[in-house]
Design brief:
This protein is an alpha+beta fold. The chain contains nine helices and eight strands. The chain has helices at 4-9, 17-24, 82-87, 108-117, 119-145, 148-158, 162-165, 168-175, 179-187, and strands spanning 27-32, 37-39, 47-53, 55-61, 67-74, 78-79, 94-97, 101-107. The relative contact order is 0.15.
C-alpha cells in the first residue's frame, strides 16, 4: 500500500520510489493527543504539517477574547501558521487537536532543500500553495457575500465528512453564525 503523502503528492506529479523515499527522509513524524497544541500563539513555528491521522483546528483569539476558527485540517491536508513559519516569527494562531493526531513535519530548511534539489516537489508545493490561496480567497468572499444558509450549504458540499466529526458549535463558529442559527439551517 502506498504512503498517504505519496498518494497526496502524486495527484500532482509522479515520483520514483527512490525520489519519494528521499522526500520522506526530510520529514519527521509527530503524534499528539486530543486537546494537545500543535502550534501555540507566541511560539516559534519551525514546521509545516501534513496530517496523516486526526482532526485539527486553527484559531485566532481576538482582543475581546472571542475565538475565531480559521481552518480545520483532517487527513491528507496541510496545516501550520504560515505567516510565522515562512517569516520565522512567533505564532499568531493556535492549532490544536480535536482528535488523536499524527502529522508529518517538514522544516522550512528541509522544504527549501527539497525544492532546490527536485523540481517535481517544488512544483507540487507551488500547486498546493496556489490551491490554498484560492481556497482562502473563496472563504473570505463567502464570509463577505454569502448568507448563513449559503455558507452552510457550501460547507456541507465541500466537507461532507467533517459534519460527522465536528460538534455543531465549531461548525457554527467556522461559518460565523450562532449555534441557534446553525440548528435552524440544519433543520431547514
Amino acid at each position: 500500500m502506498s504512503h498517504p503523502l505519496r498518494i497526496h503528492l502524486e495527484k500532482i506529479s509522479p515520483f520514483s520510489d527512490a525520489e519519494f523515499d528521499y522526500i520522506l527522509s526530510h520529514f519527521t513524524t509527530k503524534k499528539l493527543k486530543k486537546h494537545q497544541f500543535l502550534v501555540q500563539e507566541g511560539n516559534a513555528v519551525p514546521n509545516d504539517h501534513f496530517v496523516l491521522k486526526g482532526l485539527l483546528k486553527a484559531t485566532h483569539t481576538s482582543q475581546d477574547g472571542k475565538e475565531h476558527i480559521l481552518q480545520f485540517a483532517m487527513e491528507d491536508w496541510w496545516i501550520s501558521d504560515y505567516q510565522a513559519h515562512f517569516n520565522q516569527a512567533a505564532a499568531t494562531i493556535n492549532i490544536d487537536c480535536l482528535e488523536e493526531t499524527e502529522v508529518l513535519c517538514l522544516s522550512l530548511h528541509n522544504r527549501e532543500k527539497l525544492c532546490s534539489e527536485l523540481h517535481k516537489i517544488e512544483h507540487c508545493f507551488r500547486v498546493k500553495t496556489s490551491n490554498g490561496y484560492v481556497a482562502l480567497q473563496r472563504r473570505i468572499i463567502s464570509l463577505l457575500d454569502s448568507s448563513a444558509k449559503e455558507r452552510y450549504e457550501q460547507f456541507l458540499l465541500q466537507y461532507p465528512t467533517l459534519t460527522q466529526r465536528l460538534p455543531k458549535t465549531m461548525i457554527a463558529a467556522y461559518l460565523g453564525v450562532s449555534r441557534e442559527t446553525l440548528s435552524r439551517l440544519h433543520g431547514a
